[in-house]
Design brief:
The chain has 81 residues and is α+β, with helices and mostly antiparallel strands. Helices cover 28% and strands 15% of the residues. A two-stranded antiparallel sheet has the order 1-2. The longest helix is centred in the last third of the chain and has 10 residues. The protein is elongated.
């Protein structure tokens, strides 16, 4: 709510598909003639890239993934939610 930070455009509004719309800190500085906004996309959703990382980066098989999902080791939601 600081009027100076608001006047300088320090806060950026982020529209998130799950969390909704909220204010996030923006760049603490500005370049002359350049847009101040630096958040170009939302952060990934929980578990959004799990399969990709485990298979393409770490080399696990689809069967490995199925076993990890089945055991609850990986999921699309944090434990307890």
């Amino acid at each position: 709510t600081d009027p100076q930070l608001r006047a300088r455009g320090f806060w950026e509004t982020v529209d998130h598909p799950v969390a909704g719309s909220f204010l996030c800190t923006g760049m603490p500085f500005a370049f002359l003639g350049r847009p101040r906004r630096w958040i170009r996309r939302i952060p990934p959703l929980y578990g959004q890239h799990t399969d990709e990382v485990l298979t393409e980066v770490l080399g696990h098989s689809r069967d490995d993934l199925a076993a990890l999902w089945q055991s609850g080791t990986i999921s699309a939601r944090p434990a307890g939610l």
